[in-house]
Amino acid sequence: MTAIAVTIAGSDxxxxxxxxxxxxxxxxxxxxxxxxxxxxxxxNTKGVTAIHDVPPDFIAAQxxxxxxxxxxxxVKIGMLSQPKVIETVAGKLAQYRQHNxxxxxxxxxxxxxxxxxxxxxxxxxxxxxxxxxxxxxxxxEAAALLESSVAQTENDxxxxxxxxxxxxxxxxxxxxxxxxxxxxVDLLIEPSSVARLAAERIATRNTHGTGCTLSSxxxxxxxxxxxxxxxxxxxxxxxxxxxxxxDRLRIGSGHGPVHHFxxxxxxxxA
Length: 270
Prior knowledge:
Elements: E1 4-12, H1 18-28, E2 32-44, E3 47-53, H2 56-67, E4 74-77, H3 83-95, E5 101-103, H4 121-128, E6 134-135, H5 139-146, H6 154-165, E7 172-174, E8 183-190, E9 193-200, H7 210-223, H8 228-244
Parallel strand pairs: 1-2, 1-4, 4-5, 5-6
Antiparallel strand pairs: 2-3, 7-8, 8-9
């Protein structure tokens, strides 16, 4: 059986994040990728200039088309900007009994542009987080979901992760990429355990799409039948290597993308 993963997210016209990053990640990791586009963005490495939300009924139609035909092994959810869209996606996930759901609560782009309307945050908390196998917020996103200050220490990260776990998700991955220090530390928090995942912090401005890539890599692992802990560890290794290779690319004049195909594109790619 071919491993299949679906991304439900926004489209990035610059190709570095969103649907485009997710499909690149699925392909790089040997998984067939399908997509449900929830929003269109006019976006490049310098920022987001416009967002066009896809009507909820058309999102539902895309989900019906995909899930009624394909044997989906995992679902990655990214940018869902409006309350009705979130409710529609949650309803269809329930209808099609999707359990391997990776929720990346995308709120702000790497450029600083807001991608989630303020009135959608509560719906995200109460309607979608309880349907997720794992939620993957970065430090500012975790703080926003909890209406708290940004975590400064690993103990703070663990405390916030446990609070998010109490919202109904089966696991939380608090990402420390926005932190400081020589290591970038993520914490995988489950009801009975906490795993510390550390990697050397890489000095580069090419980090566009990092969160999308990590969450879709986790979904790829789940689609291939790996358990959650293995999927998270392998996803962390993949995205770290993609960041390390990102300076081999010369894309745009702002925050460039990570190198999804670093394993195959050998030599200088400028």
